[in-house]
Amino acid sequence: MDYVKAFLIGGLICALVQILMEKTRMLPGRIMVLLVCLGVALGALGIYAPFLDFAGAGASVPLCGFGYNLWVGVKDAINNEGFLGIFKGGFSACAIGISATLLAGFLAALIFKPKTKK
């Protein structure tokens, strides 16, 4: 049942973003920033943690989950290190995910031989 919830919640988030892309003139980059900021804001309000507990990967994989992860990292670093945690917390919390993404992209580029468009 966890897989079904993750699929449905993640699909709902993606469907809402697709509707936002088609019904507004917002560029994809701005929508991505909006999702990250939404995750941070919902995390700061205490709404995203219960949602994440319910939805699992359906809420942690989209970009709003990345924003929530940044929020948690900054909040923990501020509690542990004080003011400098504002600058270090986000990097510490998301370093593994970003590194894994870069490595996967590099390996995919090696395997599939990407070409530039002409």
From TrEMBL:
Q: Which domain of life is it from?
A: Bacteria
TM ranges: 6-21, 33-51, 90-112
Instruction: Give start-end ranges for the coiled-coil region(s).
Output: none
Q: Which key words are in the record?
A: Membrane, Transmembrane, Transmembrane helix
- Pfam families in UniProt: SpoVAC_SpoVAEB
PANTHER family assigned to the protein according to its UniProt record, in alphabetical order: STAGE V SPORULATION PROTEIN AC-RELATED (PTHR38450), STAGE V SPORULATION PROTEIN AEB (PTHR38450:SF2)
Q: What is this protein called?
A: Stage V sporulation protein AE
